[in-house]
Amino acid sequence: MTEKVCVGAIAGAFGVRGEVRLKSFCAEPEAISTYGPLTTEDGSRSFDVKLTGSVKNGFSARLSGVMTKEAADALRGVRLFAPRDRLPELTDDEYYYADLINLTVLDTGGKEIGQVRAVLNHGAGDILEIHGKGLASPILLPFTKAAVPTVDLASGRIIADPPDGLLD
Fold it and tell me: Is 33 exposed, middle or buried (0-12, 13-18, 19+ CB in 10 A)?
């Protein structure tokens, strides 16, 4: 498991006084401001976050040390991370996306299908993007109980029962 979890991203400047547009990836979007300070992926910068309002697809926010529109614009696309120990405990059958990346995916017969490279969500539910040696192209497996009956983080593997025709 990773030590840091991506909880949001900066979408650009909001206004001319250094505020940013902030996208939250948290189950409770407003909680992003409670996990701070948040860091960049490489840990080189750290920000305290104060939400100042709601905007389309996110929030307006003040980040510590960001005082100008130019400084806010320069942060566009930066992903923000929180230490795992500051995040809420998950219930059974809940996972942080970061924990699923690179897990080995086996079919119900124990044959390796590949590894999870990404977890996607385009609004209709989570989808695992799986890459493997025997696959002509990546497969997209619905992350449902029917298609993924077992996730074993301790062993670093997922047991999958892909829908008929997915692996053909």
Answer: buried
